[in-house]
Design a protein that fits this description.
83% helix
Amino acid sequence: MASRRSSFLTDFKDFINKGNVVDLAVAVVIGGAFGKVVDAVVSLVMTGVLQPALKAAQVESINAWPAGAVIVALINFLVIAFVVFLIVRAIEAFKRTEKAVAPPDTQAQLASAVTRLADALDRQAL
């Protein structure tokens, strides 16, 4: 009995120590937090943009239509995909500015200066 328990605990320890489990747990937690941000932005877009547009089109309740649930799900999907696209695009733009602000490569600058100096000395000798 003790051997089975020891083997089970060893297997469980090996499973946890693989690293993928921890990475997955972190991804789930961050995904949950990111989901809340997306939900908040989607709610803002839905109430600020889509509801007035639907009222202007005199659509009282899409859910009452025969395929209304499908249409609502499609609209929600498109809004969520658009919001995620905007967030990812903003993050990529932020990363690009970080790379642009990165310090210059001093090794490359020094090599370039040495090459220019050598060229100038060669021209002087002729």
